[in-house]
Specification:
homodimer, 175 residues, alpha+beta, Aminopeptidase, 7-stranded mixed β-sheet, two-stranded antiparallel sheet, 9 strands
Chain lengths: 175, 175
């Protein structure tokens, strides 16, 4: 693995074509493509994606976004944190530690991280030192939030009683 | 289909056991179970779920939450809207129109609806009159937001140029 490194992906037609190999190709990628075509973003400007190339092939990617403290409802004290999503390794390149390498790359910013993994990957995230966030209806809806915290950071947890109460009031509103 | 109706699901041990048949069983359900066990919610109080029973069997469910106008970044004018998630029909009860019935039930509140479907179900949502929301990085991250609007409501769209600009600035912050 000595030549393998995680790098920032640049927005251009090759990257956007490479993205089509990944299962989670969707709205976000199509929006980037439209912005590029309409010259709303410059070719080779930085994307929110990081990835691993083996030769000329993009074999793994993830999106990483630094979210401002003012939107932080996960950590204590409230602070800037990273949202990590679309972590994916192409099937023929799995079981080589590339996923782990990507997550370790994200951790080195030394900011708390929040992700919303598929249920069947919970075990991987736990191995990576993440933990399931305490579920909060209004914040999480259908999400399965997992968080990682560097030294000195704790989870922000609302007292369960007020949480249940709020939930109940909100449900009444939905009637 | 004359006896089939959508009803509010009540939080109790039977409902929570029924939920285990659904693929998206996770954090949210376990949190409800803990709240029930710890008497933080009363047995048979209303859950955020609606569902369809055939006899004694829960065959379909969805979660529906009325979100306040102050969190609305999807609609114009900003207003209260419904977040719909975990719509699911048990495999042996599919192709009978139950999913459609659930979505029609949600529409009858006459509020805009936002959902985040799996990519492979986009076609279903389009048939239901939903449309893909314009992708916005900070709002949507890895989501695939689909929205439905009653008469008189339009999508709230940021001007694409400022969106691209903001995106770029935020990316720089992530470095």
């Amino acid at each position: 693995m000595d030549k393998v490194k995680v790098e920032r992906l640049l927005i251009n037609y090759k990257t956007l074509e490479d993205f089509k190999q990944f299962q989670a190709y969707g709205n976000q990628e199509e929006s980037m493509l439209r912005d590029l075509e309409n010259e709303l973003v410059e070719e080779n400007s930085e994307s929110p994606f990081y990835g691993i190339y083996i030769g000329n092939t993009l074999v793994a990617r993830m999106s990483l976004y630094r979210r401002s403290k003012k939107y932080d409802h996960y950590f204590n004290p409230p602070q800037d944190y990273l949202v990590l999503w679309k972590l994916e390794v192409l099937p023929e390149y799995r079981d080589r530690g590339y996923g782990k390498l990507m997550v370790e790359f994200a951790k080195q910013f030394n900011l708390p991280i929040k992700t919303n993994p598929k249920l069947e990957t919970n075990e991987f995230w736990e191995k990576m030192g993440f933990e399931a966030a305490s579920y909060n209806l209004e914040r999480d809806f259908g999400e399965n939030p997992y968080i990682w915290m560097p030294e000195g950071v704790r989870e922000a947890v609302q007292p369960p009683v007020s949480r249940a109460k709020e939930q109940h009031e909100d449900e009444e509103k939905a009637n």
